[in-house]
Amino acid sequence: MLVQLLFYAFAAVMLAAATAVILVRNPVYSALSLVVTFFSAASIWLLIQAEFLAIVLVLVYVGAVMVLFLFVVMMLDVDLEELRSGFAGHAWLGGLVALLLAAEIVGVIWVKGLGSGIDLRSGLAAAAPGASNTRELGVSLFTHYLYPFELAAMLLLVAIVVAIVLTMRVRHREGVKVQDVAAQVAVRREERVRVLQMPPEKRS
Q1: Mean pLDDT, to the nearest integer, of 185-198?
Q2: What burial class does residue 143 get, using C-beta atoms within 10 Å of its C-beta: 0-12 exposed, 13-18 middle, 19+ buried?
Q3: Residue spans of alpha helices (H) in 88-141
Q4: Domain that holds residue 142
Q5: Looking at the structure, do residues 100 and 154 belong to the same domain, yes or no?
Q6: φ, ψ for residue 38 (rounded to 5)?
Q7: Is 0.70 topped by the overall pTM?
Q8: Rounded to whole angstroms, how far apart are CA atoms 154 and 61?
Q9: 25 within domain boundaries
């Protein structure tokens, strides 16, 4: 009973935070709402004894990816007025995509439950005492799902390159203060340090 109550509580928080990600106008608040969503999802994974996935979600996504998101948002100088003006015009499209995703998730759960003979209403079976979620995940990831894993790595690499390109585009805007690394390295001591000869003060 307690597990079910915790599940519904974390699920409600996750749905509210995920909704805030797309409804909040400030991109920084949107990124923070996504952090709350990740924490709620990690808590749900802990309830189904997927400790490794929960820890990876917190360490990788919350600790690294979200920091990069915040850096990109702050460096791109997003025009908030433009975001507010285009939100209402695309709200119907976002709702349609959300309904399609929900229908796909329900369809996959329904088909998997019928095809595999698993009664989804009874919940998941308890793991054996000596079972290791990390070992099972590693074996499955690097055998059956090796190519999708490598594809995800390539997509992350492309995302990093795109973020760097967008940052370099900001450097060419007027009024943006940037560092000139070559000029800093080539500086000489005489150009930065000046020794002044001052006469000593006379005591009266």
Answers
A1: 76
A2: exposed
A3: 91-116, 133-141
A4: 133-172
A5: no
A6: -65, -40
A7: no
A8: 17
A9: yes
